[in-house]
């Protein structure tokens, strides 16, 4: 069964223009994949913590040296990465506020982008892992 990951980030919930467009794309995907499963993540309801020194330090601390608190932080990020890796398709509703994406969506991306976990650097470029 195919899985679609639907990400909404409108402060106006289902009434937001980006959420409505996002839902339209989901309905089109379901019409083509009637047996498909939709996993919905609303970043205004399920708040992703913004990065701070505690979170960044947890990401860079070697596994064998992490505290229980640091491991909890890493586990949360790993779950978000796993969720996106398990999806066959992803649709992101991204409104623009103050000439940028919502801070909730940026926080989500910050938890997905982890060097050596979800991407790696090489001498000439970066590569997505997974």
How many structural domains in the coordinates? Answer: 1
Number of helices: 4
Strand content: 15-25%
Order of helices and strands: EHEHHEHEE
**What's the rounded overall pLDDT mean?**
94
Q: Specify the biggest β-sheet.
A: 3 strands, parallel
Q: State the CATH topology.
A: Rossmann fold
Give unreliable regions as ranges.
none
Q: Report the strand count.
A: 5
In the CATH hierarchy, what is the superfamily?
A: Flavodoxin domain
**CATH architecture tag:** 3-Layer(aba) Sandwich
Strand order of the largest sheet: 2-1-3
Helix percent band = 40-55%
Distance between the termini: 19 Å
Structural class: alpha/beta
- Gyration radius (Cα, Å) is 16 Å
What is the class in the CATH system? Alpha Beta
Tell me, what's the shape?
globular
């Amino acid at each position: 069964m195919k899985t679609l990951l639907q990400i909404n980030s409108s402060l106006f919930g289902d009434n937001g223009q980006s959420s409505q467009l996002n839902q339209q794309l989901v309905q089109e995907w379901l019409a083509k994949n009637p047996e498909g499963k939709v996993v919905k993540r609303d970043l205004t309801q399920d708040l992703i913590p913004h990065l701070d020194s505690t979170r960044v330090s947890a990401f860079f601390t070697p596994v064998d040296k992490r505290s229980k608190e640091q491991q909890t932080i890493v586990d949360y990020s790993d779950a978000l990465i796993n969720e996106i890796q398990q999806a066959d398709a992803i649709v992101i509703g991204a409104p623009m506020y103050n000439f940028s994406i919502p801070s909730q969506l940026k926080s989500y991306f910050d938890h997905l982008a982890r060097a050596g976990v979800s991407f790696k650097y090489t001498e000439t470029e970066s590569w997505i892992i997974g």
